[in-house]
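re: that chain from earlier
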Amino acid sequence: SSVAKLLGETLITNSGKQSTSEVTSGKVTILYFSADWCASCRKFDPQFAFMHSNLVAAGKSVAVVYVSSDKDAASFGKYFDGMREKGWAALPFDETTPYHTGIFDSTKAG
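^ sequence. v structure.
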């Protein structure tokens, strides 16, 4: 799929590693760029989760994929743990760098 070409073949989910196509097939896929260290991001998380739950409740088929800007794997794991329970997926931490390099620096988020 075109989403798999963009994100790679594997995502992390609540069930462990799953194919990107399996997670995103037939769904609108939202890439959620965020990080544990980003205070603005953490403030936005509940609003984004509320929007996502409303879409799902309305019968919309949506997949959320977290693209981490965390500084290390431990921070990624801690932050993503809160997303897993919502049914969201994530790019494996070591595969995220090409997708976000400089994004927070250029927007001065945090």
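Helices lie at 2-7, 20-24, 39-57, 73-84, 97-100, 103-107.
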